[in-house]
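Lab notebook, bench 4. Continuing the backlog of folding jobs that were queued last week. Each job is logged with the same field layout so the records can be merged later without manual cleanup. Today's entry covers NADP-dependent succinic semialdehyde dehydrogenase, a 465-residue chain. Filled in by technician R.K.

JOB TYPE: sequence-to-structure
TARGET: NADP-dependent succinic semialdehyde dehydrogenase
LENGTH: 465
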Amino acid sequence: MPIATVNPTTGETLKTFEPLGPDGIEERVAKADRAFRAYRGTDFASRSALLASAADLLDKERDEIARTMTTEMGKTLAAARAEAAKCAKAMRWYAANGERLLADEHPAQSDVEDSGAHRAVVRYRPLGVVLAVMPWNFPLWQVVRFAAPALMAGNTGLLKHASNVPQTALYLGELFRRAGFPEGCFQTLLIQSSAVDAVLRDPRVAAATLTGSEGAGRAVAAVAGDAIKPTVLELGGSDPFVVMPSAAGELDQAVSTAVTARVQNNGQSCIAAKRFIVHADVYDAFAERFGRAMGGLTVGDPMEESTDIGPLSTEQGRADLEELVQDALGQGARALCGARRPESRQAGWFYEPTVLTDVTPRMRIHREEAFGPVATLYRVPDLDAAVELANDTPFGLSSNVWTRDEDEQRRFAADLQAGGVFFNGMTASHPALPFGGVKRSGYGRELSAQGIRAFCNVTTLWYGR
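JOB STATUS: finished
OUTPUT FIELD FOLLOWS
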């Protein structure tokens, strides 16, 4: 895949970039290594000031970078602005809390003495150069949720971004430099996926983080395992959205949230709700309202404020989504709305919001992640069936449950196989809350204390009597 900005609204190639050759890669890896040796010795106050400066720059340039993101991957302009604002917020959160999260820990004195010491300390020290392999769907946020904690901890970063968002990738590299970070602290590598192996194997690279497809995660994990380097992986998701009868009085709110949860980012989000599991007692009412609301969304130019859903990011992405839908329809599924390209859009990679019912386990969409505005709707008779169906997926990123029954909440909290369970609301990421999944959704956690400690050397300091 060429490194290029291709506008998914029109299909027009706007700008292409030459990938870095071996000499360019070597120059940047060496620079990152040199920067780490000096930057690791800076104090938290200095790093905090630099992150805050980057947040200020991003706030000032929010509209400009939002237009770049929309042009490169098709998210609505409103969503792009919100993403930039969220990134600035995360930078400020780590600037304010990083020192506290990485403060020395002091074991109980009785345990210290039992170990034969008079004093012991647990200290979090930076690992080194961290390689980040990032996707196109949240081209700022996916990077910043790694970069802010990593830089605050004293690491340096190398970014291999998706090939279809090169201008956003270059902006990020320049953002941290312009904010005052020392040269080499954070750099963008415009390279093909085939070059990642050599970079990750380089002994100067200490660790890696990847957000992306299951295949990409397997490849990076295999190399990192062979090189014995730590990784954090956030991969695909097929999150359930469960609605129980105790939420009947809030059905309109549940439907509104369900629509947003499915079509956020044009439906191209790992943590978007994709499988809607509804108790039989409220199924008919939910299905009617959900299908009507999804079918009423406006598909169009993502630069227009009135647009709800823009194009999918790539032509291949739309083709993959169409294959899943046609496979389901061919095996007996029904479409409450959509299931086609909009007739009004002759150019670009648009697809109508779609709700499929009568989905069965033999259909591909029951097992595979639908990366676009397509929802599957299931009827279940009771709580046990809801839990069983919610867990009937190879993924386990997050989940949403609408219930006001505390016993049901305890059951879902105990038994759902996911990295998060969101009750009576929509899955969202926040810098103070750990984020990640289980099963084939990956391992490790981003954000919160877990995120900043993920790329730290947890060091025991032991002082004999």
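OBSERVATION: The first strand starts at residue 4 and ends at 7.
SIGNED: R.K.
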